[in-house]
What we know:
single chain; 204 residues; alpha/beta; 9 helices; 5 strands
Amino acid sequence: MEKPLVLLVDDDSSIRWVLSKALSNAGFKVVAADNGQDALHLLDKQLPKVMISDVQMPGMSGLELMETAKNRYPSLPVIIITANTDTQMAVESHQTGAFDYLPKPFDLNQAVSICQKAIAQDKTEQLPPWQEQINKTLMAEYHQGNPTIFAEIQTEFEQFMVQQALNLCQGHKQKAAKLLGWGRNTLTRKLQSWQQTDLDEDNH
């Protein structure tokens, strides 16, 4: 059985050594980088199951690295290491997409446990590519202050599915409704509602 790969990013060689040893002993394979740019190169070569990154590093910070990595690989769990033990850092790291965070000085057993939880989540929550893309858009828009994105995408996706069903059924509403698992009245009502919304928007 292949060992799960962990990417460890920290400019402190002693932390890299200690964490690498603890994770290796726990059955993980570890690759390490001492800066964000090198970490991104390693990510593109082989996607790990988990990335652990320090916040304070020369050049690219851990939060900047996480943002770039999550844009490329939305499902990658990221664990942030920080010397700041207050709740604000925990909130900020979660808001920017971290799976969890490790305050310094950290407990090695806790570090191993969080990695195991991240991998367990990856097994149960891995999304197909089309859902990954939707999830990425939802998270990005929500964190940029657009809470209506959920309703917008839900409507857009429903309209897309209806259009595909109508195309397949050559515009036959009863057949399209059956494909969608709806009654014909439901489909007609939705089409009328969307048409009215478009008219209202045109009149503004």
